[in-house]
Amino acid sequence: MAKTRELCKDIRDKIVDLHKAGMGYRTIGKQLGEKATTVGAIIRKWKKFKMTVNLPRSGAPCKISPRGASMIMRKVRDQPRTTWQDLVNDLKRAGTTVSKKTISNTLHRHGLKSCSARKVPLLKLAHVQARLKFANDHLDDPEEEWEKVMWSYETKIELFGLNSTRHVWRKKKDEYNPKNTIPTVKHGGGNIILWGCFSAKGTGRLHRIEGRMDGAMYREILANNLLPSVRALKIVVAGSSSMTTTRNTQPGQLRSGSVRSISRSWSGLASLQT
Length: 274
Known about the structure:
- It is a single chain.
- This protein is of the alpha+beta class.
- It has three domains: 1-59, Winged helix-like DNA-binding domain superfamily/Winged helix DNA-binding domain (Arc Repressor Mutant, subunit A, Orthogonal Bundle), CATH 1.10.10; 66-111; 120-270, no CATH class.
- Helices cover 43% and strands 15% of the residues.
- The longest helix is centred in the last third of the chain and has 18 residues, at 215-232.
- It is elongated.
């Protein structure tokens, strides 16, 4: 966006004189060849500060106009993975040449930061709805009930370092907005798949999954690892045998619970792989 020109002091003084003579904004603008909005801004400034010269500024004026700032804010809201260079190029095409630092400062002033995109499981709509229902059903459960819960999950750990990180522009509270996340899946090469469990009383067993997991393998993992972990941690679970004998139990079926707690546990484990 091209920088707007500033009127010289003589023109500004002339605008004020015509205003004192009783002329309206549009009439003054038409006579001097300026926009009525420009005339109005100068008169309002004169009424407030009793002067027409520019007030002292702290540092150089911003090279990005309010309209330009709105343009880049709209771009990063629609496409959070937009890069600095993309925004620099957009402004350059609009007539304003700025550096990446200027872009960064503008976004920071509007409350946005460049953050690593959160990696979240690639879930079907049914899984999302199940998680939401689980959260609503247990929203008011007392802390003592959560201490009886054994969480289990599967995760993929890269053998040769973590996957490349993508950055997004977002506000702090928007970290799990779908636009600001990277969906992940639990398969692929160069990695191992692990099943693990934990509770408020400690960690349970860790099991490496070989091959593609189906319902039968999942039930076997639960039978050989989940119940022994429950017993070892002395967690009292009513009817616990039903956890492993249900024929319809499928991997990923009960994708509910504290994703943040699970992610922290796996992150700690992944940090030890080297």
